[in-house]
Amino acid sequence: MKKILLLVCVLTTSAIFAQDCTIPATLPYFEDFSNGAPACWEYENTDGTNPVWTYNDSVDITGDGTNDPVVLMIPPNVSTEEKNDWAFTRKIQMDAGTEYSIEVAYNAFNLGNVTASENFELVITDAPSSTASYNEIIGTYTDFIQQGTFPGQNDGNDIKTQAYTASETFTPTTSGEYYVAIHALGSNGTDGGGFFLFSASVEETPVDCTIAVTVPYSEDFSNGTPVCWEYENTDGTNPVWTYNDSVDITGDGTNDPVVLMIPPNVSTEEKNDWAFTRKIQMDAGTEYSIEVAYNAFNLGNVTASENFELVITDAPSSTASYNEIIGTYTDFIQQGTFPGQNDGNDIKTQAYTASETFTPTTSGGYYVAIHALGSNGTDGGGFFLFNLSVEESIVPPCSVAATVPYYEDFSNGDPECWLKEDTDNTLPVWMYNTGTDIDGDGIGDPIYQIIAPGTQDPLKNDWAFSQKVHMEAGTTYYVSSHYNVVDLGSSTSFEDFEMWVTDAQSSNASFKELLNTYQGITQQGQFPGQSNGNDLEAMAYLAEEGFTPTTTGDYYVGIHATGSTAIGGAFLLFDVGVNTEPTAQDCTEAAVTPYYEDFSNGSPACWEYEDADNQNPVWAYNNTTDISGDGTNDPILIMAPANVSTTQKDDYAFSKKIQLIAGVEYIIEVAYNSLNLGNAVASENFDLIITDEPNATATQTVLGSYNDILQQGDFPGNNDGNDLESQAYTASEVFTPTTSGEYYVGVHALGTTGTDAGGLLLFDLGVSVNTVPSGGELIIIPTTGYVTSVNYNGTAAAGYNTEHFIWNGNGNFEVIGGVPPGNGIGGQTGISDDGNTVSAGYLNTVSGLVEMSTYEISTQTWTSLGGIGGDDGVEASSTYAISGDATTVVGLGYTEAGGPGGAHAVAWTEATGVVDLGSTVPQAFSRANATNVDGTVIAGWQDTATGFRQGAVWINGVQHLIDFPNGDKAGEAQTVSNDGVWVGGIGNFANNHQAWRWNEDTEIESLGPSPIQGYRGATTGLSEDGSIAVGYYKPGSLPAIFGVGFIWTEATGVVELNEYAATLGIDTQGVTLALPLDISADGTAIVGSGLDSNNNRVGFLLRLEPTILGVDEPTIEDTFSYYPNPVNDVLHFSGTTPLKSITIYTVTGQIVAQKAITSTKGELNISELANGIYIARIEGYESSKTVKIIKK
């Protein structure tokens, strides 16, 4: 009986302590074998031989007198080095997305005196088998040897205490049951050893809340209080955000986790508390979808109406530096019942979903915040959050527009986002083809093609549309495509197509702009190719056209195949591109000065060469030779004979076509050298010429002949400055065309003097206006404000800072009071041509309003001019300009009616008072900014119905709106020439933001692109006849003082004002002449504001001597006469008092003729001068006169 009871007791005890290995272990999991053989571990003897994994607790490893449990493998002898056995822990539950830390303590064990070098892998599996379906190696440990002594001496230096630790992490992508496996791989070499395991552990990796999680991120609170969330009790009172998992919300018998706010009672409706998620990594430019499931909760029978904001912040704080509200949710009430009845109508199942998107502009860690705002009315309620998620928005691949530059050469397969339209519903159709070897290199070439079924089928009406491409309004884009034709059989096909831009991939798109039509295209190159560069692709045509959208948006390039003239053929596309720079320069358009070519961008665009003697050598571009010796190749144009005996050369190199203006002197410079062949000394010769066509038979002007040119410098160079390029000669000549037009600079190689031939090298070529240094100067006007106006000849100026001021040529600076622009006050300071009257804003002490006013310098008296019956509470009218003769003041006045559009352009004269110039658009504003010499032509702007300020001109009181030729509206006008012929103003998208000038006959003219790419321009001042313009180009939305000033003439184009001053030899004293605001009518003075070397604003007057445009000076007595004008040969002149001299200048200031005079009359023969415009300055002993003359 006792034995039976003992057996029952043993069985009962075994039943109590036996582990159920079907149940996964919970975390943290730790096994150190101290409780015997590890429960539920499994071992696999994969190689079917000893050694095998064994549990052992019979050896004192540490030497402390007690045995130490271990799982080990010990081979039967030292020669058994092979191991291929697995030890699997018990099953462990792991959750997707959670990082787990796995550690194993291990060591090697030497047999006898042999040192073993062991190896193993740490592996995660989904079954206790080496062939498990899921098997991920998380760590490999090789060549480890015994660390510590065996047996131990109880001194801490034993193999258990000195054991290694394998430490790895694992993040499952799928929740489930996993095993940690130790896969023994055996010993290196021929000596086997033991492998001991002392412990294994698995636990969740502690969360570092400073590290941002990646998306997708989801939190449904099912794992307890959400990790790394933070809460802010901003109002310092209840309720506060709380985590709760003790309530069955749905009614299904299980509790539902929620983050919530419940007020203590129904009368507590206030909430101002924040819940912040953990930090989430988001990347700039990526759109993220953010969703929150939420609901309201009624207290008792009261219906609560809750409110909250969904916010993105860069810190878990309501005062974070970055705080963007992405959604506001108001007046939501409880949706569903509480408690739930397990019928799907509970407040969790019926929860609302807040769904928003967020696209960060900067990559970094962000937080999603829920800002509870409280209840509407007097009844408080609860606010429940059920889950929150953040993930990248799923964007359909073709819904996102490509950015520029865009290029498709079909090399990555049939482009997914292209569309082919079979418009005529018959063959042929566009097809993608990669199976034809076009160039003959043995590899198929990808193309788009449309091939007629036969030569008898010439008709085509099919479209191929590119991917969507994003383009900005006002930017010019260059749309390009390489294409060719294939003849079918022996027939010659003449194919046609059109290049379009559309706003949809459809021939019926609402927006379609035809860029060009290409007709009669024949096959160019061989088919099939012979891998010799003469195939259809290598010889393909290039279509390239400009497109300037007026509206920012997404566009498509459309290639419309329109068929053959008579015989059907194939039409091939090799690529399509969109860029802001042309692929190839348009050689039909002339370059403008300054023009410079140093060959650094490859073979010079639009140059042409003529082999006049039909033999070698010929002009060739070369960039494969290091001439200077600095380790980089130097680009050149060269003529190098094959040998020293080939002395003859008769070849031309012609530059690109260049636009030159009659009467303007240009300087043409070429850097060149000779090259010796071997030991021979070559003596080369060439002519520098100007032609009107790029060929040897064109009309030529020889500018200079260069003979007996010897090599100057070493070749090859030694990087010491004594090479052919550093020591190159410079050919420098001037040319003044008699007729405006297009010209070519030519270099005519004439061969070698003597019997030894050599090479002729060109390094660069430049053409620019020959600006002669003058006696001009920069005068700093002592103000940190703005110098806005200058009189006729630059002897007086006016402007404003905290008050209005005047300055005169004697250096006198005087503050005159008045109310300057700013703080709701409009206007500018103006000055009359004689420098005696100023126009500006001034406070009328009677009305208490600021009004347009004048200030007489001689009497130091202000006169208020009134308004047109209305005011804005501060001013009745504002002054923007005064006419040269001081009879007219223009600006803006508030109408008596007020309301929308209640301010109009106005003009004052003494006879009429202030006159309302009106508005041609109902309920829209207008303003007058400038006037000519007598007030008959006034310029400014007229608001459109959408509020766009369109340039406007009032000629004798009648408004004319300024448009571009395509109908786009010009920006506001800011200046008028004294003669009233020209108006200048602000550029906009319609002309790539270029400054412009306009007259009634020729309409609008863009002055030229910004000297700095992306800057936006305006014309602020015009000379007497509008032939000189000044203004600025500024960076985007920044103030113009941070831009660059410019001066423009027909001859020079847009030139930076600082650069122009430097060419005249003027010291700009470290000042950036950023904001020219006016130019004197005689062209001798430019005023404005700039930045000094410390970035402080300063006023300036840039005086130009001699004048670059001559007109009469009204401030002196007109005692001179001259005739005829235009003049053919002799110019006659006289004065009422004795004269000193007459000097003739080009329009850029170069003296071309001069004569001293000792009487009251004289004459000057200018028959030798080229036809064009000149400036004549007649000097007397008491006065002078500057006039414009025309030489015919």
From TrEMBL:
Residues 1123-1190 form the Secretion system C-terminal sorting domain. The keyword Secreted does not apply. Residues 1-18 form the signal peptide. Keywords: Signal. Pfam families: Por_Secre_tail. The keyword Signal applies. This is Por secretion system C-terminal sorting domain-containing protein.
